[in-house]
UniProtKB/TrEMBL annotation:
GO terms for molecular function: 15-oxoprostaglandin 13-reductase [NAD(P)+] activity; 2-alkenal reductase [NAD(P)H] activity. It is an enzyme of class 1 (oxidoreductase). GO terms for cellular component: cytoplasm. PANTHER family: PROSTAGLANDIN REDUCTASE, PROSTAGLANDIN REDUCTASE 1. This is Prostaglandin reductase 1. Keywords: Acetylation, Cytoplasm, Fatty acid metabolism, Hydroxylation, Lipid metabolism, NADP, Oxidoreductase, Phosphoprotein, Prostaglandin metabolism. Monomer or homodimer. The keyword Disulfide bond does not apply.
Length: 338
């Protein structure tokens, strides 16, 4: 049997190019005692892959999480038909001893996790609302923004995997939610499907003007997915004692590190409005990971949390899916169906 994988062939220079990857087809090795053969069902593409790529060695399989099914097992903990979520990278087939799998992001052991029955919810959600992005939204908002009912929450990247959940969880918690996204269709979705109180297309509407209209008294909580000029503008509109959760800075991921984006100074707002700003990596909540997933699943079952996926069909489409993140092609979680 043949398997395919994408090798990270060249470090990115600016926007990633298809030629930075090499598609390799190779024989899937036999399964030895203690090993399992996993077949990918869905592969995730995520913005973090761009900044993290600086740490990846060329010649290795491109990093990433996937939902895979056990097709052969010589390991007592895994049986044929089990579905797992695991850091196997951009590959169709993986043969390994699950006890020895290493997550290349932190070089720590990372055992493939056998997924429970999601009760009719697609398995792909283990890469989105019921996985890392869902927990990023849930923990990032609830732990760092300290949201209180009646407060004003702003989120950018608001129609994406994380942002769309942040806004909806904010609504569930009783906040007034304002979102920024990159197209009129996304803005419509935020207002009509996700019930945001206000939403704006940041490509056509000045952010400061938008907040003057939608939050004349100022912003209490800001969940930042974008960074740069837009974030400086939002921070300048915050209220006294506002809280900022710094989740991502996608606007600068493809920048030349020697010529970084310059944005207006935020220190005067930080000082005079006595703001609290904290960056995070979602893995800090690994010890309570399942708590976030259970809560988001509960919200889905109660009809309070909706989600979108942009599904690319076919293993060869991974690059298009990945680059689509930087062009705003996706609405909700971008995944590749294998
Ligand atoms: N800290 C953590 O642990 C953690 C975990 C997960 C994700 N993140 C970060 O959270 C952010 C969102 O991740 P995600 O997985 O939910 O991705 P996503 O929002 O589903 O996809 C990326 C979106 O970013 C927007 N975008 C791209 N380039 C932009 C630019 N120059 N300016 C403004 N917006 C731009 C696009 O939407 P528009 O059409 O609206 O432009 C695009 O659809 C990323 O910054 C990511 O790195 C952090």
């Amino acid at each position: 049997m043949k398997g395919k994988r994408f090798v990270f062939a060249k470090h990115f220079d600016g926007v990633p190019k298809k030629s930075d990857f090499e598609l390799v087809e190779e024989e899937v090795p036999p399964v030895k005692d203690g090993e399992v053969l996993f077949q990918a069902l869905f592969i995730s593409v995520d913005p973090y892959m761009r900044p993290y790529s600086a740490r990846i060695q060329t010649g290795t399989t491109m990093i990433g999480e996937q939902v895979a099914r056990v097709v052969e097992s010589k390991h007592p903990g895994y049986k044929v038909g089990d579905n797992v979520v695991a850091y196997f990278g951009w590959r169709t087939h993986t043969v390994l001893n699950p006890d020895k799998n290493i997550n290349p992001l932190d070089n720590k052991p990372s055992k493939p996790y056998i997924l429970p029955d999601f009760g009719g919810v697609s398995l792909s959600t283990a890469l989105g609302v019921l996985g890392m992005p869902g927990n990023t939204a849930y923990f990032g908002l609830t732990k760092l923004c300290e949201p209180k009912p009646g407060e004003v929450l702003v989120v950018n990247g608001a129609a994406g995997a994380v942002g769309s959940l942040v806004g909806q969880i904010g609504k569930i918690l009783g906040l007034r939610v304002i979102g920024f996204a990159g197209s009129d269709d996304k803005v419509k979705l935020l207002k009509e499907k996700y019930n945001f109180d206000a939403a704006f297309n940041y490509k056509t509407k000045d952010v400061t003007e938008a907040l003057k209209e939608a939050a004349p008294e100022g912003v209490d909580c800001f969940f930042d997915n974008v960074g740069g000029v837009m974030s400086s503008a939002i921070i300048s509109c915050m209220k006294l004692y506002g809280r900022i959760a710094v989740c991502g800075s996608i606007s600068a991921y493809n920048d030349d590190p020697k010529k970084p984006t310059l944005a207006p100074i935020i220190q005067p707002s930080m000082i005079f409005k006595q703001l609290k700003m904290e960056g995070f990596v979602v893995s800090r909540w690994l010890n309570i990971w399942q708590e976030g997933i259970a809560q988001n699943l509960q919200y889905i079952k109660e009809g309070k949390l909706k989600y979108e996926e942009t599904v690319y069909e076919g293993f060869e489409k991974i690059f298009d899916a990945f680059i689509g993140l930087f062009k705003g092609e996706n609405t909700g979680k971008a995944v590749v169906k294998i």
